[in-house]
Amino acid sequence: MAPSGKPQADLVFSDQSSRRPLITTSAIGAANRRRVLETLHRLGPSSRAQLARSLGVNRATIATILQPLLDSATLVEGDPVAPSEAGGKPARPLWFRGDGPWLGAVHLSPDFVVAARIAFDGTIHEMHHAAYSRDASTDEITACLHQVTDGCFAGEALVGIGVAAAGMVDTSTGSVISMHLTPGLNGLPVVALLEKRFGATTLVDHHPRVQALGDRWFGLGREIQDFASVYTGEALGFGIVHGGEVLRGENGAGGESGHTIVQLDGDECRCGRRGCWETVATLGWLRDRAAADGLPHADTLDSRSLAALVADGSDDAAALLDLYARNLAIGIANNEQILAPGHYIMHGDACTGGEALRTALQTWVTRLAPERGQPPTVFFAEDPDQITLLGGAGLVLSSVFSTQA
After folding, report:
1. Where are the domains of the chain?
2. pLDDT-derived band at 41, boundaries 50, 70, 90
3. Strand 102-108 relative to strand 158-165, pairing
């Protein structure tokens, strides 16, 4: 009897009780292969024994995981390495084949589109660039997209194409939902356009999340399971990695951290709301503030030129740099309160500010973030200009070797 005294209904379980199926044998295999690829990217060329030790499995298991990667020529064996003085068989280090299969990558920004053909080891073999104005039509942007992708992908065998798109995206339809800076991108069906043209599986995601995949597969995030990849410049955004996986909302929602409100009833944002983080921590804000402070060349000021003014002894520039760092740190500290990744890899304009800006940003993040022992760490990306393209390659790798059933 139920506590109310009424008869308890029989429990009925249907196949609708869970939308996610059990992980299949093939999915487990794909997940293991992805772990091997991630480990190789982290360690560099490695023998079977080295991989087995790093992954905590025996030689027979690692051999089973590796065989499909060798059969598909994703990995190749290097020349034998002489054994140590202790003896044993010569090891044959495994590494990625340098001449294909290819990963396609596209960065679709408010001002330009770049395409690259990339090997599994992250080497960019070909890259093409085309610019357009912010009032360009959808047809003009599409023509630029076809121009650069034809230059990189035509006649090539692609494992897939990964697209980093500015603005809000819908990963289920493969299109850009909206882009405030460049309305011609609104509704662009980028996946359908590229799949029709090249016959390769194509994936699109929000730019900061693809950037985070670049960090995860090829950048500073290779050694970190939890971090945020932060884009700075004319817009702001987070790509969040938790437990080695990029976090996404349904159909690609989320990541629009620049439109979280940090100042109630603050300045109006391009999105129509007031007080968004973007209104106090982007290049537009920085240039307006520089003009109000009487700094030279305020209309083109960025973190690089601001840091140069500081180095030349300008007190006004030093105060503005510190304020810019504080405003950037506000959004980072808010994210630390919610998700606490503990590590922040900066990209875009902020990276051009050098150590002066990184130190100021670290100081403010330490001051504003919750106090839980070790403060969050701020890094500047090693190669912020190319990591988004490498993230497009990572988007393909994450799909081909997905842990999802």
Report:
1. 25-96, 102-213+388-400, 225-381
2. confident
3. parallel
